[in-house]
Specification:
Elements (H helix, E strand, L loop, with lengths): L1 H10 L23 E3 L2 E4 L2 E4 L17 E5 L3 E7 L5 E7 L1 E8 L10 E7 L4 E5 L3 E7 L5 E5 L13 E2 L15 E2 L1
Parallel strand pairs: 5-13
Antiparallel strand pairs: 1-9, 2-3, 4-11, 5-10, 5-12, 6-9, 6-11, 7-8, 7-10
The structure holds dtdp-4-keto-L-rhamnose.
């Protein structure tokens, strides 16, 4: 029996810290990604959570545009990259994995891949820095509803958006069984 113990433990991986006592995620982020956890205020009638408040001084970028993008289950929107604006994501409904790949030559996290889970169980606001490839993957059972508040107004005549197919081999991540673009 001892052999089984040693054999299985030798093949096992030990959990590393992932959260702190106050519930902060100890997750790695691409350099420059900003995050703010949303506080849900609930009373006997319902709940309220602030999405954006100038008083937070969250970033020094202007508030130019707000839109909602939805994502059907098992669908990926991406890979996308923006050169002149940052995205500001706020998940309202559902569970979405945001996969990011930093290709910025001078970034301390250059060449690293990151996976963040945005969920309506722990809402947060995150920014996506320019020149970071990103893809949004609905890993839930229901349609995701995401608010985006990009730092520049959408240029209909010349969108600031570059795309790679979700199955590109230029980014070290695949979405088996998912569809999208
Ligand atoms: C972003 C945007 C798109 N559109 C139009 C263009 C197009 O016909 C349709 C869908 O646009 P998109 O394919 O860009 O929509 P979508 O794929 O939902 O866009 C989002 O994807 C994620 C991954 C991101 O990175 C975001 O920046 C944003 O581009 O909506 C607008 O009218 N206004 C806008 O502000």
């Amino acid at each position: 029996m001892t052999d089984l113990l040693h054999q299985t433990l030798a093949a096992a991986s030990k959990d590393q810290p992932t959260t702190t006592t106050d519930g902060t995620y100890l997750e790695r982020h691409p350099h420059g990604l900003r995050e703010r956890r949303a506080q849900t205020i609930t009373d006997d009638r319902g709940s309220l959570f602030e999405i954006w408040n100038k008083q937070w001084a969250f970033d020094d970028q202007p508030m130019e545009q707000v839109y909602i993008t939805t994502l059907r289950p098992n669908v990926v929107k991406g890979w996308s990259l923006h050169k002149t604006h940052e995205d500001r994501y706020f998940i309202v409904k559902g569970t979405m994995q945001v996969v990011l790949y930093d290709v910025r030559p001078d970034s301390p996290t250059r060449g690293h891949l990151f996976k963040l889970t945005l969920s309506d169980q722990a809402r947060r606001l995150i920014t996506i820095p320019t020149f970071v490839w990103h893809a949004d993957y609905n890993v839930g059972q229901d349609e995701c509803l995401l608010i985006n508040m990009p730092t520049k107004i959408y240029n209909y005549a010349d969108p600031d958006k570059w795309r790679l197919p979700i199955d590109t081999d230029l980014i070290p991540h695949q979405f088996p069984g998912a569809r999208g673009y």
